[in-house]
Design a protein that fits this description.
The structure is a homotetramer.
Chain A (H helix, E strand, L loop, with lengths): L5 E9 L2 E8 L7 E10 L2 H9 L11 E2 L3 E9 L11 E4 L2 E2 L5 H4 L10 E2 L16 E5 L3 E3 L6 H4 L2 H13 L7 E5 L3 H12 L4 E5 L3 H9 L4 E3 L6 H8 L4 E6 L4 H9 L1 E9 L5 E5 L1 H6 L3 E4 L7 H10 L7
Parallel strand pairs in A: 11-12, 11-14, 12-13, 14-15, 15-17
Antiparallel strand pairs in A: 1-2, 1-4, 3-5, 3-9, 5-6, 6-10, 7-8
Chain lengths: 319, 319, 319, 319
């Protein structure tokens, strides 16, 4: 007979050492709820933790549970007056910033140095994530999933929020021509949101035929192979004056340089993909075209907006 | 036999005195083209000129041709090297700012004191408009109409540009909740563009059942009668924390006050409809909610964007 | 012998009923400090509470201690590891927002519905203020006062922060022409900060000769009497194209209308002074000049900036 | 006897081949004036043209007169109704954009592809400059010099405008901490303007002792040698959380990397100095700190503002 005070969870012990274990079931405190996980997504950073036992500078000081993209059902509450939340189907915003430091007070809480993120070793000790039967989350991080949507869509909220934040950082894409270098998960999400936000043109570049086909199915104006012989001719034909906003979502230095090359005077390049330090860029192009090149890190102030967009049908994730 | 150097035109001579007359056909100069008018729209300001012989402070000093919303075909060019433009189907941006004054140089050429606008007495002498067989326009003001669209859509570019400019002035509506007070032409255009730009919710208020029905057909989240007994209850149910952006498109002072009442803390109210000076507003609400209330006048930098949005299908004007 | 667990405080019991009483000395909790009050300022809202027993919509549910502009010395700490703060001379930011609600997360915590402000009945029960011997404050709200400055300057931080926030809200005044209607405390503070931020011209209007003289001493380009016969001629001579930014700091409806009248095309009017709802404004001027009219409420993200400006000499408050 | 229809001018014929020649005196057309040059500055780009016969991609197709920083006296006018301008002492904005292209209409005329700049081969044929007795300029480009200032200050307007534009591009520096890498002419100008605009702290780095001393005399909070052994310790002590805005004004790749290193989370790096393409930058730092890195090219909409700031004493250039 199982111990009801325990639960099953996938715990990372080191590089390529994830174990399915019995661990204590967490209990919700004040303003918190217990969520029974019903859908979870696997992100590139999860794979990174799995392969290397760490993720860049984030090194765990003890075994912990991975995962930060998830949806589920509220099955217990920490406050008596939250009984009405029981049974609610929710997606969970994985961000728990301090809310009081200088950068939180400026509204850029995604940069909070004390940010607790589900399934991350960015703080010490690491914060447990969602690859488990249950997760405790602040009640305000839980956004209801409309009846018409399955739990699985809820797990898409996190990557869609990353994409939406990048678009907000860019100054918006409504009525603008957009380039996305890299048709992986985040690139495709940016494509979907850019279409929903009324970009007049969205072109995706990717070396993989599958990614290009998928982008075209999602409504890309064109999906171009950057290794094609006539790559530059194709790009110039699509946007003779260059693109107004480019999103670098591949993490490939050559793609970043192409993003600059095809960005219009006065345009914007947003870094979303992960790059190392020491990348070569066309600084003279940035200077003489007055290009704005900016980083976009996780997300802030968009999680509930994305759910509202899905609910209203503005973003269609069922494809 | 008609004199080919003349053309027919509707000339405003005074209040309720518009005459169909034979007038000299204009000739394109350098960088200009001659457009044979194939479709023209009638704007509220045209009706105002017709009824009153003037439009607010704009008083014509001689008879002139009205009309500024139009599309047509390029039938003559002013420069030999523009022969390739002949036969092009175009919508015409009616804005001809000076391009060199302080406010033009700041990119806000819609406020240029020397703006020449088709069919307007805002300059002296008044500038002839499009209610004629032919119009001369700068080549760069002519935006090609895609083959799939009739000329009539071209005449919609001007009011769509007014709507798009108002949305750009607001800071953008992507992912935001939007209120539009007034479901007339401009209100409906704002609705269409706000939907295309990914507003998460768009509510329209109008006293006329026809306008509300039309708004619902255009995809409004709800269309509410502001004279309904339960008006406030309906609005509060739709947006418990208020709307993030409100567009006042009715020109009715009571509607402006409702726009303030239902705008969220930190929100924005955009004035698009024409109001007189001396309107009472809830200044304390503006202060304590830090509302931004701003005027939106004609448009700048959006005409070709709107055409690109129509061409790409992002804005669907065929409804 | 006095009871060391008590302190003296001015407690508001009702309209014109402030009593000097012995009350329990508060104790600092975690992350909090006890400040011995050494200087305090009296704000218009304090006088309002005193006269009416309330301040607008803010009605106290129990007697409470007024006052929110103050400086003092840290004499006790709530955490053992904060011992080093003992003896520090500090100005205290009176804002204690929740840090987790939607508007806090957007960086606009001055609009937080759960904001606890020293000496205010904006929350229930009211929050005690600084007209007392001691105050407990969060450690992070305490900004050190440089040795060269007396405690009294510290009490100026709050009104200077209100002025600085209004300027930040306006989009900045560097290199711009500025009008301030109303030369009371806040108007003078806006003048000082606008000068420090490199406004190219700052004109103040006020009916009181004393306020005009003081403004001129603070470096105003001109200080004008709005009741002078040649008022409009004087204003037009000073700014033929109008002012780029106007701050309404008088709370007088006629002054607000003058602010609009003398604001340039594309300009900004900031409401800082308290106005009632139902104020008449020139809405047509706002529309056709595309004026931005916005409220500025208390302040956010500027308190420590103001101290840095005072410390560096950029703002000189010793005059 | 000299031919009064001629004038003396320094004409660039090739690399290290500048000749003092007699050339035809230009005549002002409509809206233009003839300026007798009374002071001129030599910019780095002038030296570049002199050394190499070209400046980067700008290759002259015929001999032309260099120079774009100047002031002088209006001695002839192109329009009869401009007689009142005769004798006016003016500084001349060297920018003559087309005013009608897409980027001009957006207010970013410094990026106009048809920009005619005095003394530049950026257009074909090259545009003559101010190293001559007389120059023809558009009347609206001439900004009166106050009586209290010598002509020489007028020649400073151009580099001060470059500095002011960079600061405007950054989002403003009022109340912010600022780093300037490079204490050459532009770096010092940025320092002067940043001080005038109320930066709370301005730190300059330069390897040259002379530049550091000069920066300190201009009011820098500190001037640091980036080759000092304790360079990082010094920088961290000055700005423990990093600088909010950094201006790269040295054109040295290592300095750009230091600008990133010492920029705070959420901060901005502005490229003002000339860099080649292919520069290595810390892209991961840009990503995870959400740094905004943007180019600043020449200037727009600031020339007359700078003169107003000099006139009002906000900027003191007499040092």
């Amino acid at each position: 007979m199982p111990d009801s005070s325990n639960m099953k969870a996938f715990v990372l012990h080191g590089a390529k050492d994830v174990r399915l274990e019995e661990v204590p079931k967490p209990k919700p405190g004040p303003n918190e709820v217990l969520v029974k996980v019903r859908a979870a997504g696997i992100c590139g950073s999860d794979l990174h933790y799995h392969s290397h036992g760490r993720c860049g500078d984030f090194v765990p000081t003890r075994p912990f549970i991975l995962g930060h993209e998830f949806a589920g059902e509220i099955v217990a509450v920490g406050d008596a007056d939250q009984q009405s939340l029981l049974g609610t189907r929710v997606a969970v915003d994985p961000s728990r910033p301090c809310g009081q430091c200088r950068i939180c007070r400026q509204g850029r809480y995604n940069l909070c140095p004390e940010m607790v993120y589900f399934g991350s070793a960015s703080v010490t000790p690491p914060s447990d994530g969602c690859f488990a039967e249950y997760v405790v989350a602040p009640a305000k991080n839980c956004v209801p999933i409309p009846d018409a949507f399955e739990f699985a869509w809820g797990a898409l909220l996190e990557p869609l929020s990353v994409a939406t934040h990048a678009i907000m950082r860019s100054g918006g894409v409504s009525g603008k021509s957009v380039l996305i270098t890299g048709g992986g998960t985040i690139g495709q999400m940016i494509l979907i949101v850019a279409k929903a936000f009324g970009a007049s043109q969205v072109v995706v570049t990717d070396v993989k035929p599958f990614s290009r086909t998928f982008a075209e199915e999602q409504g890309a104006s064109a999906a171009i192979d950057p290794t094609a012989e006539d790559f530059r001719e194709q790009m110039d034909a699509l946007a003779p004056d260059g693109f107004e906003v480019a999103f670098e979502a591949s993490g490939v230095p050559a793609a970043l340089n192409q993003a600059f090359e095809f960005t219009a005077k006065g345009g914007t390049v947003v870094q979303v993909g992960t790059l190392e330090n020491g990348i070569s860029i066309p600084a003279n192009t940035l200077l003489t075209r007055e290009i704005k090149y900016l980083g976009s890190w996780r997300f802030a102030n968009v999680f509930d907006r994305v759910m509202a967009l899905i609910s209203s049908g503005a973003i269609d994730v069922r494809a």
